[in-house]
Specification:
Blueprint (H helix, E strand, L loop, with lengths): L1 E2 L14 E2 L43 H13 L3 H10 L2 H8 L3 H6 L2 H18 L9 H20 L4 H21 L5 H7 L4 H14 L13 H11 L7 H19 L3 H12 L4 H8 L3 H21 L3
Antiparallel strand pairs: 1-2
Length: 315
């Protein structure tokens, strides 16, 4: 018989109740009528052998193994000991990557994210203070891994951080207005909802356009050959034909003309005819009334003077 729990005896109005089991206990024979006397043997005690490992610790290894690895690393820090710990805690990187936002995992290769996170894991091992509680390291490492991944993504972003923040705010506003209006909002409505002025709205739209990616084959569908060729010309243009290169070359030519204008008259005229006018030495000789060999000597002297003038300007 099993007596009622004494912890419940103080409840007012409670009667002492004797609880009887519905059937035989585990180690008692069944004495009910019609039942044979069968002894149920007791289960053998569970024993753990001396060589059997303890319960696994963080990342699937025994706690003693992890602690021993940390102690070796703290006693004699080296790249090899750090790498051994990194291999022990490597599953943390995959865990953090799986918990990243979906848009990050969709737009960036998983192997790249894991590489960024592994660098953060190595940094966490280097910064973990000697003598700290080892069981706290996974929580600390996951924060470092996540931070390292986002740091690398920010460095790969071609937009400044402020511009990227404005783009995110713009897209969030567009989604809210689309849900509220039941249609795609107009640009003016988005700018008004964000309480931006005209100039700020223009900069916002420029940032949004700069944040968009265009696949090479997206605009080429074969229906408009001229448009496809124009897109290819813009994508495959020579570096010398780019607006920046053209502007720099023009500014350099203007500054070079100012330096040439300060040379003596005969040298200045030779430089202008020979390089700006693209005349041969024979043609320059006919213009100046001198022989071809004399033009060569004058050109060498003029170029030396031009080089000295350029060095004085610190170019």
């Amino acid at each position: 018989m099993l007596a009622a729990s004494p912890a419940l005896d103080h409840i007012p109005g409670r009667k002492n109740i004797t609880v009887r089991p519905l059937g035989p206990t585990r180690h008692e024979p069944d004495r009910r009528p019609g039942r044979p006397d069968v002894e149920i043997p007791a289960a053998p005690p569970i024993s753990r052998g001396p060589s059997e490992p303890r319960s696994p610790g963080p990342c699937g290894l025994a706690d003693d193994t992890v602690v021993a690895s940390w102690q070796r690393h703290w006693r004699d820090p080296s790249t090899e000991s750090r790498n051994r710990l990194a291999l022990i805690y490597r599953p943390l990187v995959g865990l953090v990557v799986r918990l990243l936002p979906g848009d990050v995992r969709k737009n960036v290769e998983i192997c790249d994210l894991e590489s960024f996170g592994f660098l953060g894991l190595c940094g966490a091992i280097d910064r973990f203070v000697e003598g700290s509680e080892v069981l706290r390291f996974p929580s600390y490492a996951k924060q470092r891994i996540r931070g390292a991944i986002f740091d690398e993504l920010r460095q790969l972003d071609w937009l400044p951080r402020l511009a990227r923040r404005r783009v995110i705010e713009y897209r969030t506003t567009v989604e809210a207005l689309t849900h509220a209006l039941g249609r795609n909002p107009k640009a003016a409505e988005v700018v008004a909802a964000m309480e931006l002025g005209a100039d700020q709205g223009d900069r916002m739209r420029a940032d949004v356009q700069a944040a968009q990616l265009l696949r090479v084959g997206t605009g080429m569908n074969g229906e408009n050959e001229q448009r496809d060729l124009a897109l290819l010309r813009n994508l495959c243009a020579d570096r010398e034909d780019e607006p920046e290169s053209v502007a720099l070359a023009s500014a350099l030519a203007q500054e070079l003309r100012r330096v040439v204008a300060e040379l003596p008259e005969r040298q200045r005229k030779l430089i202008e005819l020979r390089f700006f006018g693209r005349l041969t030495q024979l043609e320059v000789g006919l213009q100046l009334g001198v022989s071809n060999s004399r033009v060569s000597q004058m050109e060498t002297s003029a170029l030396s003077a031009l080089r000295r003038a350029i060095e004085q300007r610190g170019w």
